[in-house]
Amino acid sequence: MNETCIFCRIARGEIPAERVLETDNVIAIRDVNPQAPVHVLVLPKTHVAGMLELPAEDVTWNRLIGTVQEVVRVEGLVNGFRVVVNQGSDGGQTVPHLHLHVLGGRTLQWPPG
Ligand code: DGP
């Protein structure tokens, strides 16, 4: 855990967030600044700075993707959705704790900016 990381603090319950789903290892919360009718962040409870800090074989990836699938189901995204990881400064990452954005509920444009 990271004392000052905002997503660690949300995971610990120190900062409120609307939780969509929670397992022992992963939480799914609504983004405070939604970019689509459904905008949920899926993140590990333990601190991981970004994609490159989590080995490909780590079971956390399965847990994150499993939670994305469950979010899609409970949010009823039957027409599709988008999963995004913003990584590093060029990728537009603002919170250095790995999180998957799940966006849906409208037709999404491509390419992103
Ligand atoms: P990124 O730019 O990919 O690092 O996305 C960070 C997202 O986190 C951004 O869309 C806004 C969201 N966010 C930042 N602070 C909070 C917070 O305190 N609560 C919630 N629910 N979302 C937050």
Walk me through the structure.
The chain has a single domain (about 5-105), classed as HIT-like (HIT family, subunit A). Helices cover about 25% and strands about 20% of the residues. It has 3 helices and 5 strands, in the order αβββαβαβ. It has a 5-stranded antiparallel β-sheet, with helices on one face. It is globular. The model has no long low-confidence stretch (mean pLDDT about 95). The structure holds 2'-deoxyguanosine-5'-monophosphate. The site of 2'-deoxyguanosine-5'-monophosphate has 14 residues, from β2.
Please sum up the structure shown.
With 113 residues, the protein is α+β, with helices and mostly antiparallel strands. 23% of the residues lie in helices and 22% in strands.
Mind sketching the topology for me?
Blueprint: H1 6-11, E1 19-22, E2 26-30, E3 38-44, H2 59-74, E4 81-84, H3 88-91, E5 100-104
Antiparallel strand pairs: 1-2, 2-3, 3-5, 4-5
The protein binds 2'-deoxyguanosine-5'-monophosphate.
2'-deoxyguanosine-5'-monophosphate is lined by residues 6, 15, 17, 29-33, 41, 86, 92-95.
Q: Could you give the order of the helices and strands?
A: HEEEHEHE
Query: What is the CATH third-level topology name?
Result: HIT family, subunit A
How many helices? The count is: 3
Query: Which geometry do the CA atoms define?
Result: globular
Bound compounds: 2'-deoxyguanosine-5'-monophosphate
Q: What's the CATH first level?
A: Alpha Beta
Largest sheet: 5 strands, antiparallel
Helix content: 10-25%
Order of strands, main sheet, comes to: 1-2-3-5-4
Number-wise, the strands total 5
Low-confidence stretches are: none
Roughly what fraction of the amino acids lie in strands?
Answer: 15-25%
CATH superfamily annotation: HIT-like
CATH architecture: 2-Layer Sandwich
Arithmetic mean pLDDT: 97
How many distinct folded domains? 1
Assign the structural class, choosing from mainly alpha, mainly beta, alpha/beta, alpha+beta, or little secondary structure: alpha+beta
